[in-house]
Amino acid sequence: MRPSAMRSAAQLLRRRSYSSASGQPERKVAILGAAGGIGQPLALLMKLNPLVSSLSLYDIAATPGVAADVSHINSPALVKGFMGDDQLAEALEGADLVIIPAGVPRKPGMTRDDLFNINAGIVKNLCTAIAKYCPNALINMISNPVNSTVPIAAEVFKKAGSYDEKKLFGVTTLDVVRARTFYAGKANVPVTGVNVPVVGGHAGITILPLFSQATPSTNALSSEDIKALTKRTQEGGTEVVEAKAGKGSATLSMAYAGAVFGDACLKGLNGVPDIVECSYVQSTITELPFFASKVRLGKNGVEEVLGLGELSAFEKEGLESLKGELKSSIDKGIAFANAS
Fold it and tell me: What is the pTM of this model?
């Protein structure tokens, strides 16, 4: 690729996701699971973010190689790799933001609940370390099933006496990214100007895109189109798993979504106003203790959990339909965290 083309690509990425770091405070970001399918491209994208001054890459294996590779990129963030339990403390100390894509990926035929027994234990152990070594950091949970791993993290932090509901986020940005892409394609509008709130949870029918609130609005979509777009958004992960034919899951798009949400959190920490993203957080906008909706981000993490707004009849039906499954996933996570 020509240098001019590389510069153009970097400029486009910054325009879409990132802001200038001029005069901003130094920020340490730790990625736990940095050698995995999501972790590696996520490490690359966070290395490109000018708001990151220190990038800490942790995994149980292979992290030194990933860190060496990423560290050669000529952007300001200083990169260090950490491997194994004995280096986890150093990886976490002083972190402002911890992003967790650790765990096993989905495989054909697997649901997010099938991942539970493995990933739940990984998340519990990592969060125990976070509570000890960087209790004030913002936590971005990517490890699936997010509907359960966020409640697990909350319970671990409560036991440690470090829980702050404003600082724990389930990353549901990929659902938003997919909804924007699919809506733009069907409505024939430029994707860069599209926004679609996605609420509920982060698995199957718990994912509820609010296409009635999509901008720019359009009259070109029928009720059947909306139903099809909703189903495709809900099954986007399965679409990728099947397309990769057993050789992976949604790693690249998830890394992009994780980088976008991580950047939003950093902007909030740095006092940039009016940063609003959808995220799965502790919430009172429904009867469920955790719920994804639009959230205003700030210096303390969550500044405000925003309401759902006006829903269509189809969306109201979807909201009621998702609550049982989402409650079950939340309860499963809480029970796991408190079992030992």
Answer: 0.93
